């Protein structure tokens, strides 16, 4: 039992095979893509492996502490930021192999022309609770 | 109300329903319903015969559901179940069969863990979901899939004790800290199993759990950080739990059928025996690791053996033992760092601690290793 984050990037991941921006797809291709994502999440829930799935807005605000009694400084978005997270799915599976298998399926979501996007997803393990037995 | 007592009745109540002809999945649902009723009603008026009460209520719940299903599907095949009488049979065997079923080899480890906690442990789906930090709907699906998977398995055959022990070990070793104390639950379930079957490895696992559980309050500092064995305040170890673990282990070892859990428990017992870390009998611990290597061939065991060799025969000997362990093993860098530190090579140790921190699979260990690296780096400056 281990949790993995399947991370989807707006930007920063290597280019997918079927690399057409979503705003240039046919509307029904977008619907098919969304449906695929929903079906995938529903299937994972049925298999008892789904934890969470969220999408993020492409633009956010950068914030930092600016000293005692001062309001936080806000800035951005920065055009030069290389990596941009689009969203994620968290899964709870029995092995790393299973996590890779599921990420492969998610990456097959249909895009332009109804063909799989083959987009790169990042699979990252969660840090767990410490084991009880250590010696 | 003693919830643990209530839940300890779960497996035998479930077994009665299955013996009366209910299929496993439906019986398990009915027992859960009865447990919920018990939690609601018992505080006001506890029954004289708790098990009898649970059987009666669970059976009624089962029949209600079966009748509803029958009516809905207009099928008659479930009606015959009404006439079934409870067959006599020892409750102990029933409990045992339930453990085997819930740890059946056709289940994945996570499914076996979930099913065991629910059907044998009597925990609710919500409690199990919280303990493993997954949504309740996901856990409900995991459990119902597991029930479907084993529903075709005959309930009357003995299974493999080793699969049951692996599941219980997982519950003990890999729990998060939610509102259910999974380590304590694993001990309860293992204790119950040990009462049902005379098997040295079951006893060995129970002893192992008790001996590690005894150190629990000393394992973490008030700020939540890990305290390594050598630095633990041994006056905070639970001596009662240690005494019980050692007694159970000695009885198991006397049967002369050594297994990996007994050997691991023996190592934990030697640590428990030492009044201070400096008085640890590392020579004997190395011998038990040799046994464990022989029994399991596990690279994790070889890695831990290298630590023990380092303590028994000095860090150079430990590094020599470590050289024979696959360097891609998790915690290899952490062990190497520790041995280099003891050997006085602080620069190498600091680098290896930092490397080990990056590879750590849990947050507490990562923080611990990062602190070690930082401390050595400060000394080297």
Contiguous low-pLDDT stretches of chain A (5 residues minimum) are none
The computed structural class of chain B is mainly alpha
- N-to-C span of chain A: 21 Å
CATH class of chain A: Alpha Beta
- Gyration radius over CA of chain A: 18 Å
**Number of separate domains of chain B:** 5
Approximate strand percentage of chain A: 25-35%
- The CATH class label of the largest domain in chain B is Mainly Alpha
Number of strands of chain B: 0
Average pLDDT of chain B, rounded to a whole number, is: 90
Mean pLDDT over the full residue set of chain A: 91
Radius of gyration of chain B: 24 Å
- Strand residue content of chain B: under 5%
* Residue share in helix of chain B: 55-70%
Structural class of chain A: alpha+beta
Any guess at the CATH architecture of chain A?
2-Layer Sandwich
Head-to-tail CA distance between termini of chain B: 60 Å
Domain YCII-related (chain A): 15-107
Family (chain A): Belongs to the YciI family.
Protein name (chain A): YciI family protein
InterPro entries (chain A): Dimeric_a/b-barrel, YCII
Highlighted features:
heterodimer; A: alpha+beta; 4-stranded antiparallel β-sheet; 2 helices; 23% helix; 27% strand; flat; B: 381 residues; mainly alpha; 5 domains; 20 helices; 69% helix
Task: Provide the fold topology.
The complex is a heterodimer of chains A (135) and B (381).
Chain A: E1 2-11, H1 27-46, E2 50-55, E3 62-64, E4 73-75, E5 84-93, H2 96-106, E6 122-125
Antiparallel strand pairs in A: 1-5, 1-6, 2-5, 3-4
Chain B: H1 3-8, H2 10-19, H3 24-41, H4 50-73, H5 91-102, H6 109-120, H7 125-131, H8 136-150, H9 161-173, H10 182-196, H11 200-213, H12 216-219, H13 239-254, H14 260-273, H15 282-296, H16 299-313, H17 315-322, H18 332-342, H19 346-359, H20 363-380
Helix pairs in contact in B: 2-3, 2-4, 2-5, 3-4, 5-6, 6-8, 6-9, 7-8, 9-10, 9-11, 10-11, 11-13, 11-14, 13-14, 14-15, 15-16, 16-17, 16-18, 17-18, 18-19, 19-20
């Amino acid at each position: 039992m281990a949790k993995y984050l399947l991370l989807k990037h707006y930007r920063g991941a290597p280019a997918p095979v079927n690399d057409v921006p979503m705003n240039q797809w046919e509307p029904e291709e977008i619907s098919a893509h969304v449906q695929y994502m929903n079906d995938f999440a529903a299937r994972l829930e049925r298999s008892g492996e789904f934890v969470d799935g969220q999408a993020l807005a492409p633009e956010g605000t950068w914030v930092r502490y600016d000293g005692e009694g001062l309001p936080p400084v806000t800035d951005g978005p920065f055009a030069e930021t290389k990596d941009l997270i689009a969203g994620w799915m968290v899964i709870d599976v029995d092995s790393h192999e299973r996590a890779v298998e599921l990420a492969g399926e998610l990456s097959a979501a249909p895009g332009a022309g109804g063909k799989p996007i083959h987009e790169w997803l990042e699979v990252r393990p969660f840090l767990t609770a410490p084991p009880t037995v250590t010696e | 109300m003693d919830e643990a007592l209530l839940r300890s009745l779960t497996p035998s109540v479930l077994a009665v329903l299955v013996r009366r002809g209910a299929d496993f999945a439906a019986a398990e649902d009915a027992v859960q319903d009865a447990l919920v009723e018990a939690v609601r009603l018992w505080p006001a008026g506890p029954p004289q015969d708790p098990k009898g009460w649970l059987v009666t209520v669970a059976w009624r719940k089962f029949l209600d559901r079966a009748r509803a299903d029958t009516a809905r599907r207009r099928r008659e095949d479930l009606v015959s179940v009404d006439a079934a009488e409870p067959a006599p049979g020892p409750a102990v065997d029933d409990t045992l069969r339930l453990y085997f079923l819930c740890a059946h080899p056709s289940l994945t480890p996570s499914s076996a863990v979930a099913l065991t906690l629910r059907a044998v442990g009597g925990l609710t789906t919500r409690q199990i979901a919280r303990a493993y930090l997954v949504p309740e709907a996901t856990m409900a699906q995991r459990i119902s899939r597991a029930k479907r998977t084993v529903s075709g398995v005959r309930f009357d055959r003995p299974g493999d004790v080793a699969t049951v022990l692996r599941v219980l070990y997982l519950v003990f070793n890999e729990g998060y800290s939610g509102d259910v104390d999974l380590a304590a639950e694993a001990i309860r379930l293992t204790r119950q199993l040990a009462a049902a079957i005379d098997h040295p490895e079951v006893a060995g696992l129970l002893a192992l759990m008790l001996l590690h559980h005894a150190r629990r309050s000393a394992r973490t500092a008030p700020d939540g950080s890990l305290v390594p064995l050598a630095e633990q305040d041994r006056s905070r170890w639970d001596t009662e739990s240690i005494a019980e673990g050692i007694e159970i282990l000695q009885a198991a070892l006397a049967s002369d059928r050594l297994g990996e859990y007994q050997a691991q428990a023996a190592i934990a017992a030697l640590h428990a025996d030492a009044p201070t870390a400096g008085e640890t009998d590392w020579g004997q611990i190395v011998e038990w690791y040799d046994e464990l290597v022989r029994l399991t061939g596990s690279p994790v065991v070889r890695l831990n053996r290298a630590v023990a060799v380092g303590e028994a025969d000095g860090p150079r000997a430990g590094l020599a033992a470590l050289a024979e362990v696959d360097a891609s093993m998790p915690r290899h860098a952490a062990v190497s760092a520790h041995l280099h530190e003891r050997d006085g090579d602080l620069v190498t140790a600091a680098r290896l601690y930092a490397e080990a921190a990056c590879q750590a699979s849990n947050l507490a260990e990562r923080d611990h290793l990062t602190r070690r690296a930082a401390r050595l780096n400060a000394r080297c400056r």
